[in-house]
Design a protein that fits this description.
This protein has 514 residues and is an alpha+beta fold. Among the domains are: 52 residues, no CATH class; 290 residues, no CATH class. 34% of the residues lie in helices and 11% in strands.
Amino acid sequence: MATSEELAFQNAKAYLLKNSTVSNTNIYDHLAQLINKLLDERPEDAVDVVEDVSRDLKGRAFKQEAENIQEVEARSEAVALAEAQSKLFETKVEEETEADEDMQPVIPDLAETAFYFEQTSVGLSREELFRIFLAMKQLTQDQPVETVRFWGKIFGTRANYIVAEVEFKDGEGDEEDQLENDEGDGDIDVPQRESSEDQEDDMESPDEPPKSQYKPPPVIPREENRMGTNKKTYFVTNEPGTPWVRLPPVTPPQIAIAQKIRKFLTGRLDAPIVSNPPFPGTETNYLRAQIQRISAATQVSPMNYYQFEEDEEEEEEEARDSFIVNTEFEGMPYKELADPSLNYWVHHVQYILPQGRCVWYNPVQKAEEEFEDEEEEEEREEPDEPEPEKGPALLTPLSEDAQVDGQPSWSTTLSTSFATPYTVVGIHSNRWPGAHAFAIDRKFENVYVGWGLKYQPGCFQPALPGAGEQEHVKTEFITETDDPTPEEEAALRAAQEGAEEQEQEEEDEEEDDD
């Protein structure tokens, strides 16, 4: 019979061997492993590290010895972005000759530009602008660009777009556009013309519906690179340090539809544009169209900073599409630049016509050329010659801009009215909120920071769906008749069978006579 001491020992050991409901381990085994580990390693000051050794043993008990899935360290988006941006700060020491320095692309000093925009309460943070400057420098190393400029920043619902405006070197940058056009055109199977006999058979057959005489309206081609709406090329990125993406050229239908819809950008270039009327493209194309619309309406400069070349004739003033910098320009007084009349600011980007181009294209002339190539000599109605579209010429003063909801299209601000030699004049668009410009001495710059939406008084009303199709017009080939009754169908079927039997008898009689 066990003594009381033995019974107490058994109860104590049973208590120590009781497994935990959480970890399914017991204190007895854990203490045995702890003592064995201390005796094997014999650390100094064991009493001070016993808690750490105990915690380590518990951690190993819950870790599999052999893991089939490789551990992936979870990183936040901020850490991943910081790692990508850290590459922008890597300096490369290269030997450059004087000739190489002359061929380097021109990168504007964003720090100076940001300082002047700060005087007019406009701009981004200095840290972000410095990262954008490094990203633009990286762009010049990856692309054969001649000049690059920070166009602005467009906000999105998921991510933002940082836009860089570039000009490629002569003979560079057009290959990619050509490849995009080749892939987009594709091979189209053109149906062969039917012979005259087939056409006669079709006309004689009353069961065949008449062929449609509808001809789609002529397609308005896009303007060539370095001209009109595609004069400049644009690259975008969501954050400095992430890859730059080149936007495709813009087409007239894209601009025409973009003028009729209002969409918030998402920050994803492949996002679809769901709208009425349907937009021909994805967010990439819509973003490019909005950039061109904003540039055409808000890219301004002080008067006489740009000038036309002297050899151009005055009667071709409306067709001018290029200008040069006036080397004799010495700046304008701030009072003239801040004049509410806006007579001393001009547009230096071509106006976009309702057709979606900067230079009007005659669609009737193209249709006539296609008709002359055809062999048909039938008479046709001559289409009406459309009236050419016209718009404001280059370097038109801002005073000719239409008002916005009864207010001037632009507002002006001064950095200070005391130190007049250092006063910076800011000008802000009321038609495209977010478009700004400044001028002081011979310096000026434009920037856009906004949502990419045009100001619209009142609520936006999307276009209503089109009217339903009308009934088909009756012709000699298509007439509406009542459906036959079952009796009439039976009588017709019997008559057809009788006619077939009679034809068969006649054929048999002819064979017997032969």
